[in-house]
Specification:
The complex is a heterotrimer of chains A (about 525), B (about 100) and C (about 210). Chain A has about 525 residues and is an all-alpha fold. Chain A contains 21 helices and two strands.
Chain lengths: ~525, ~100, ~210
């Protein structure tokens, strides 16, 4: 290569570092925690020390993120982009990681001598999610997904001598490997059809490709469309697997049940949100280009993609909710509920509008808090009773009123009842749909909204079953007393306060997401 | 006729399809991981072929190299998990034998 | 011994079938769809390509259809070797060597290890349903023709390929310029995975 060109490329890399400090903190912090884990090996309070160190790393990363120049720029020769959209998600990921660190340092599911590696690997996953939210190159997308996935495989099987955990890890590795392989195969076709791996160039190249249809033989045009459709379907398999949408959800219940509960909580909010960030950037940002009125609809092979996403959304939430009804293990129940919530969020994606994307962002932020809160109660109860069965929740209101009330708040919020924050999030998702009903050919959005509303009613049934067990059923004679540490109670209170406050005063979160809609499009 | 892009794409497609078949028919974890390797190889053939015939430069080859690296890492994690399961099977058996003796 | 022979014969037969299919497909079906479909006598290089491609696909078929996991492993070895040979035809010499070193030297040895270690207790099964041979053939019949159709019919924007030239220096330059970030992230991925694999597989460590 010509040395002069090389110099230009290297200069771009050097300049890009100025926007890369949050990620650098995570990388070096992760290594630092590995080392500290060895240094403090014989220290009595090593769990607290390591958790503190991890939180400091996350805080430094957050500080670097806050101080970052707020421009939308492409970094490292088109590998990733930084923009307010990516920053929004990065804050969510930092929050999810920090809360998971706090929750797991108080959990007994991790042996103290193994928790250092858990924290360090958690930082590595956070880095992967950062990259997922900002990747603008096919290779970076694949790498970011693999970084998140491969570390997740290990952390799912983190409990020693637990067959369920190992089986869950095995299942996860197999489904994950297949999904990412299929996604990669789709990417190879995109690379060949469009002649580039840079996602920000896709819109232009797609337009050129579509114009080429006019002169080509009819068979050739049809085949090109088929190739585009196959590539898109394959790529969405990889993304759908990350957000656990039907039909790529099969791993979800087993993995959620087998993983250590703090990590299950993290999986349900972190990588899922990262999957949505990736989906929005990839399909809404890149494929749609300078987005016309119908967004995606014109750009890829004449397939009504919003309707396809709508069907997936409807099937995902219906299946998640219906299967959740018969679950008695709370971890499995929350797994199916998280599948259903992925379906709700897909409604916002199906709307392919700025409001739709904003509603997905708002819902992800609220879902983060309410789902982590719900899992925190499950952890507290399981620590006292040793089981995640719904029968352990009988009479929880008398055995531990704080936990019961907090759990009720989280469950009502997950259902989407006012005046909790979940209501506000769901309202925005439906609002995005209603906005689209008026456009020509948008009548099916009304059907989707109706299915969403029906699903909310179904979900009320199984959430209310838990609440009835907690408040109306008497406790068992020999039910173990539920104990929660002051820290755990404080955390429950903070989560509940968040849900209650943002249930009535939602302006800050809405304004923040509205400011974060700027996506780098090349 | 001489070699064209299509020749390589056909091989890549066959590798991918056979990899998928392996994944859906096998119940053995190691076997499924082999199927994943086939899928990744099909992808790599596609990438190298597109790079040679369509895109030019070496970007496709670099992409394929990264895929090889990540596939190796994934195989390492997958097989570590398989071995752990194998160990826990054995240890479970041993413990079972102990309790029976008491 | 007899069973081994009959198996080998079956394999050879399968490989022959695949080679025949490929040969037929490429010489008879393809030219109708390609603009420059004039009959050209095959060159030696092309024949070598067909041999490699047939070996690759036959190996892959072995992975997919063999009931014995050791035979699957050997099939994978053949498929990986054949793929490495195909890279040479695409003027990807560095890729071919990396394939040999990493895939065959690393991944395949790992897989063989796992097979040898776990074979004695039978199969480590994933507790999910798997389709039988019929389901597998159905998947193949659904996916393969579709992808072949794409490969054959799409008017790929082909341009005259450059001359065969060593690519190693070029790839080195690109790794440290355009693809610097993936290069560095790959090292993070490897570090995290290696630590993870060790954490998974090591014996219990006591704190003291």
């Amino acid at each position: 290569m010509d040395p002069k060109n090389l110099q230009v490329l290297v200069d771009v890399n050097l300049k890009s570092v100025a926007w890369f400090y949050p990620e650098l903190w995570l990388i070096f912090g992760s290594m630092g925690v590995f080392i500290l884990d060895l240094v403090w090996r014989k220290n009595r309070g090593r769990v607290r020390l390591l958790a503190g160190a991890t939180l400091i790393v996350l805080a430094c990363s957050g500080a670097a993120l806050a101080m970052q120049p707020a421009d939308a720029v492409s970094l490292f020769n088109g590998m990733i982009a930084t923009d307010s959209f990516a920053n929004f998600w990065k804050w969510l990921f930092l929050a999810a990681a920090a809360l998971t660190v706090v929750i797991s340092s108080g959990s007994q599911e991790f042996a103290p001598e193994r928790i250092g590696e858990f924290f360090a690997l958690l930082l590595a996953i956070t880095l992967g999610m950062f990259l997922m939210a900002s990747a603008t190159n096919l290779l970076m997308i694949y790498m970011a997904i693999e970084l998140v996935s491969m570390v997740s495989y290990v952390l799912v099987g983190y409990r020693r001598a637990d067959r369920k955990a190992h089986e869950a890890a095995l299942k996860y590795v197999i489904y994950g490997g297949v999904a990412s392989g299929v996604m990669l195969f789709g990417m190879s076709y995109l690379y060949g059809l469009l002649g580039t791996a840079n996602v920000t160039e896709f819109a232009v190249k797609l337009a050129a490709l579509s114009q080429g249809f006019a002169g080509a033989a009819p068979g050739a045009a049809a085949a090109t469309k088929l190739a585009l459709v196959l590539a898109t379907v394959f790529v969405s398999a990889g993304i759908g697997y990350k957000v656990a949408a039907v039909p790529w959800h099969m791993w979800c219940p087993d993995v959620y049940e087998g993983a250590p509960t703090p990590f299950t909580a993290f999986l349900s909010v972190g990588p899922k949100a990262a999957g949505f960030a990736l989906a929005i950037r990839f399909f809404f940002g890149a494929f749609a280009g300078k987005m016309g009125a119908t967004g995606l609809a014109d750009s890829v092979a004449g397939i009504p993609w919003p309707a396809v996403v709508g069907v997936i959304s409807a099937v995902t939430m219906t299946l998640g909710n219906l299967v959740a009804v018969v679950q008695t293990n709370l971890k499995r129940l929350l797994a199916y509920s998280s599948i259903a919530h992925a379906g709700y969020m897909l409604m916002g994606l199906a709307a392919v509008s700025a409001t739709g994307m904003q509603s997905v962002m708002i819902y992800s932020a609220i879902y983060l808090v309410m789902n982590l809160g719900a899992f925190l109660v499950v952890i507290l109860v399981a620590q006292s009773t040793g089981s995640e069965s719904i029968f352990e929740y009988r009479g929880l209101a008398r055995r531990h009123p704080v936990a019961a009330v907090a759990f009720a708040i989280f469950l009502f919020s997950l259902t989407g009842l006012p005046p909790f924050a979940g209501f506000m999030g769901k309202m925005y998702l439906f609002y995005a749909l209603f906005e689209r009903i008026g456009i020509p050919g948008g009548g099916w959005y009304a059907t989707l909204a109706l299915i969403g509303a029906l699903n909310t009613a179904v979900s009320l049934y199984y959430y209310a079953r838990i609440i009835r067990a907690m408040f109306l059923d008497p406790p068992y004679e020999k039910a173990a007393p539920v104990e929660a540490s002051p820290g755990g109670q404080l955390l429950l209170g903070a989560f509940s306060a968040f849900i209650l406050v943002f249930g009535v005063w939602w302006n800050p979160i809405v304004n923040w997401s509205a400011r974060s809609l700027q996506i780098f499009r090349g | 006729m001489h070699l064209t892009l299509t020749h390589f794409l056909v091989v890549g497609a066959l590798l991918f399809a056979l990899g998928l078949v392996t994944v859906v028919t096998r119940r053995n974890a190691v076997g499924i991981l082999m199927g994943v390797e086939l899928i990744l190889n099909g992808t790599n053939v596609n990438l190298a072929a597109f790079n040679h015939y369509v895109v030019g430069g070496v970007s496709g080859q670099v992409f394929a190299l990264f895929v090889i690296v990540l596939a190796a890492a994934e195989a390492a994690v997958g097989l570590a998990i398989v071995l752990t399961i194998f160990q826990s099977f054995r240890s479970i058996d041993v413990r079972l034998a102990d309790t029976m003796r008491e | 011994m007899n069973r081994t022979f009959s198996k080998l014969a079956l394999w050879a037969f399968l490989a022959l079938l695949v080679a025949l299919f490929l040969g037929y497909f490429i010489t008879r079906v393809l030219p109708d769809y390609l603009p420059a479909g004039r009959a050209v006598p095959p060159r030696l290089g092309d024949l070598v390509f067909y041999a490699c491609a047939a070996a690759t696909v036959a190996g892959a078929a072995g992975v997919a259809f063999s009931r014995n996991i050791v035979w699957s492993c050997i099939g994978l070895l053949i498929a990986l070797l054949g793929t490495a040979a195909l890279y040479v035809f695409l003027s990807a010499d560095f890729l071919a060597v990396a394939q040999l070193l990493v895939y065959i030297g690393g991944v395949l040895v790992l897989i063989l290890f796992a097979v040898m270690l776990t074979n004695r207790i039978g199969e480590v099964n994933v507790s999910n349903q798997s389709l039988g041979l019929g389901g597998g053939l159905a998947v193949f019949a659904a996916v393969a023709p579709l992808l072949m159709l794409v490969a054959v019919l799409v008017p790929w924007p082909v341009r005259p390929p450059g001359p065969m030239a060593p690519t190693t220096a070029r790839i080195g330059d690109e790794f440290l310029s355009t693809w610097l970030l993936p290069f560095e992230v790959a090292s993070v991925v490897l570090l995290a995975t290696l630590v993870g694999a060790v954490v998974m597989a090591r014996k219990e460590l006591k704190a003291d």
